[in-house]
Model the fold of this input.
Amino acid sequence: MPATAAAVALVAQPRTTLLRAPTGVPRRRRALARRYAAGAPRRSLMASSSGSDAAAVAAARRPGVREYLEAAREMARRRDGGPPRWFAPLERAGGRVPGAPTLLYLPGIDGVGLGLIRHHERLAKMFELWCLHIPVEDRTPFEGLVEYVEGTVKSESSRAPDKPVYLVGESLGACIALAVAARNPDIDLCTSFRKSQLQSLSAFLELVPEPFHLATPQLLNFLTGNFMRMPSTFVGRGLSLEEAGHTLSELTSNVLPSLTFLVDILTKESILWKLKMLRTASSFVNSRLHAIKAQTLVLASGNDELLPSREEGERLRGTLEKCRIRNFRDNGHKILLEAEFDLATTIKGAGYYRRSRKTDFVSDYLPPTPDELQKAINHERVLHFVTNPVMLSTMPDGKMVRGLAGLPKEGPALIVGYHMLLGFELGPLVTGVLSSAGIHIRGLAHPYMFDKNMEQLMPDSAHFDLYRVMGAVPVTGANFYKLLSEKQFVLLYPGGAREALHRKGEEYKLFWPEQSEFVRMASRFGAKIIPFGVVGEDDICDLLLDYDDLLKLPFYDILDKMLNEEGPKLRTDSTGELKNQAMHPVVVAPKVPGRFYFIFGKPIETKGREKELRDKEKAQRLYLQVKSEVENCINYLKEKREEDPYRSILPRLLYQAVHGPNAEVPTFEP
Done:
């Protein structure tokens, strides 16, 4: 059973104001919701832009175990026997996106409803956020909880049938969500109760006198997770021993005393009741998994000491029709309270965030937050360090300059160029342009990156998530049209997968269609076409095995069939090389790293030329001009890099040793 099973349940339902309780909640409960919201600590999510160390510190400043315990203590003071109720964790949520869907959080056996406390601020900008509170003395049976949540979902869905409902649950809450999903084929979630230490816990607790039941290691870990290990977020990330010691001291003085209030939150009788209910719930939902038809996202912790999260996650992925799994190797049982985990980013990365019945990769997209941009930069940190990219651009008068001053300040714009082996240039290109010039590039990507079945073939199912967070969309005419209509900067590789997975000796060769594919679309919106070139792949690796070599290997045909016969396809009506866009791995041998060089050519205007470029011959001439400019950019860089004294990593390291690690390393004169 996953420690936290988060499901994206897709049913329609609207909301107009955060402080309006879900339909069916009496007014007196709405007042309670406001009081609970006031009792929950508020924190602003300050984005980090100064590196991974600062990002870790900023993440740790978000509410966590201590804030959870403090807020839970306030809620436990209000003794009542129920019934369960919804509450809004934040009184106001500024900056919420228009048409935000609703997210309902269903808690675990603690029942407090504050399990998302680290994520309230982020989620409240993306969703209408409501949390379920089950009072300590409430004895509503499992079926009653299911009916209560189901009634809310049904009532809300009737208000706006075109909007989705998201259910996020853990432990008991996941069972409730699964049951609701099974009874209503439009929503779903997942959990299990088998193969865990909790199976024998209820019998053991009956022998332990109160309040010593909370000293049971399994239960303490189940309620708070591995929070004693959470200061490790700071250790080894640039903080001094004194600062790390202060963190541990703060944990001891502030968090541990708060654990005494767990006696008020979770009495022995309450725990035994909920553990028995969890056993019933697990049996109930496991027999109904086949009925779940909606999207489900399972979060599986790789370091869960209580439950076989990864094994259960794989079982659910194989059972549920529309289930995706995300594995978090270093996280424990209470992943939602642990540092460096962001639920909002995970939902976005999995491609599960939407505000209507069908996903629209353009209109539903939310730009990356500063934290998400920093995460993308950190992801490319090693590649950036060893290649130290040089970026050049061309001014309107044709002068080449170092930096991005030659790029247009506003869209729409179409950036067209060469696709390096394995797309090595993508990370430095997108993050470099966004962080340096503030220009957010939206890439038109192969549908392979969005296919549920194909991600299962990757070493990590979240391999492409960061690309989606940074704005990649499936390459279709409709998405191309929408992006340009919204005046975006669009990245297009006409050579596609054939270029990025080229054969030996084909580096820097363009595999473009014979006929123009983008000129008339760009002219329709008056978009500037910016040709660009990039070189450097041959300075970091040698291609050992290409597709032709792989086909000669024993049993490779099995993988080839899975990748290409069963996977998504592009340009099936093309001829020649472009039709052969087989997806496949490659084997490379690393070299002593050289340097990446980018150059953006002079922007080509299409504004006012729509009628002219409707003529196929004129559009074709412009298309060939763009292709020629890209080839000229590549040739220019291949020639000029020979003049760069810092092309190799060794002289660059010496330069930075003298001038500082953040010093800009010189290059050739443009």
